[in-house]
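U., I forgot to send this yesterday:
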Amino acid sequence: MLRSLSIRNYALIEAVDVEFQNGLNIITGETGAGKSILIDAFSLILGGRASADEVRKGADKAVVDGTFHVKANRTIKDLLARYELDGGDDLILRRELSAKGTSRCFVNDSPVSMAILKEFGDALVDLHGQHEHQSLLRRETHRELLDDYGRLDGLVAEYRDSYENLVALSRAWKDLRSREQRLKQERDLYEFQIKEIDEVGPSAGEEQELASELRILENAEKLFDATARLHQVLYENDQAVHDLLVTARNQLEDLADIDPAFGAPRDECAAAAVIVDEITKFIQYYNSRIEFNPERLEFIRERLGRLTLLKKKYGGSLDAILAHRENIGRSFETASNFDAEVQALEERIEAARAAASAAAQRLSTKRRELTGKVSRGVLTELATLGIPNGRFDVMVQTLPPPADGEQVSLRLGKEKITAGPYGMDDVEFTLSTNPGEDLKPLARVASGGEVSRVMLALKTILAKSERLPLLVFDEIDVGISGRIAQAVGKSLRALAQYHQIIAITHLPQIASLADLHLSVEKSERRGRTSTTLRTLDLEERVREVAKLLSGAEVTRSGLDSARELMGLER
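Result:
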């Protein structure tokens, strides 16, 4: 739901801050007060079009902020995760429009593109009126609404899984076929390279191990002589380090008997003698194991030379050689068994096609079963909303031939059909509002209050399944009055049980049902005209409804009528 809206320096609006409620939020105001401006400003944070001319004269920029409560909105959570944006229970959409014509968009204070802002707006708000943000006029939403109404999520997911599997296998088949000639041409080359690499048989880390061993073998004589000399210095000479340390320790022992202060130096000297003893033992052991092996030395040199030649040909490192061997091994196997692989893949494709076809047919059958129920429901609502002779139909037709690679061919019996990510059906809502007129797509129906009532009828029967939490109706009451107005008001009231509703109206029958009533007012101060939005208390609501009933001059009888219409005691 929309918690609050803040508008700064937009057209006639200098500053507007308003909080909304759940249920039915009604906006009223005199003609020309700025109700349309308010909707235009709101549409900015939904990704609507903007112009520098809309920035209030004298201001550097216009700013619109909307705060939405989205705690349970999974779609918004998914969008935040997809675009790596911070999220919480509330979502803030902001749009800044400079007087120079530049526009900046923000989601939770993070800059985003206009396209991303519109994604969030489309997932939060459905705006109906004299503007373009009307999801039900977009043909692609009709299938979604029909599926939501019929609770077809499970069937849609089942089909989507089988469809994606079929698409993946089909792409693999196309890729395999495109590689056929190249694989056959390169088969001999791959065979030669595999033989060359396997004859050497390199292993990961081998080069480093051989290089270390080579250094030791090449310096065996130096290592032998140096360790022998060290052993003499540390242990065998007349002035060997070990003997000198033992002598020093004994002297320190005598001194410690006189002065305990020599105890610590004595212990350190003794520890040093032990360390020298351990070093001597290691040197003696190392010296005894030094190997003079010319044959092994020559083998390592030859082995490193063969590895170097392989590196020059296949990537510069042993890891690159091994990776290349793995890749060409797979390609060689594929080329050697190409016909068998193609056949196996084609069998998998046919099995996947059969599964997708069955799932698509089940989904299509359910959709076609729903059409009559939806049509009857809409017609019933239209009759109560002042379109008694309307005709409404949900057209479910097989998709046209594929226009891109994202569609696949399915089979129903001997018939081939086209299918896309959501099945084999093309769903479209059609309408005729007057006797004798042909059914037409919703997008071609005349605009204005008539269209809004059609939208209201659809929303009413789809209320429990509709995905969007906020519905905005801009002047839904155009061209209606009396009994029809009451019916429209009741429909809005019923719809507000499932959605937050914001409706601009001129009719007292609708305004009287508000959970929250806002008044758009225009005033002049210091030679500047400003539009403001004010929340009305109960008595102010009564007066506003009375004005809608009787005109600018509010009478006692008008107030009484307003109270009666609002269900209040006189």
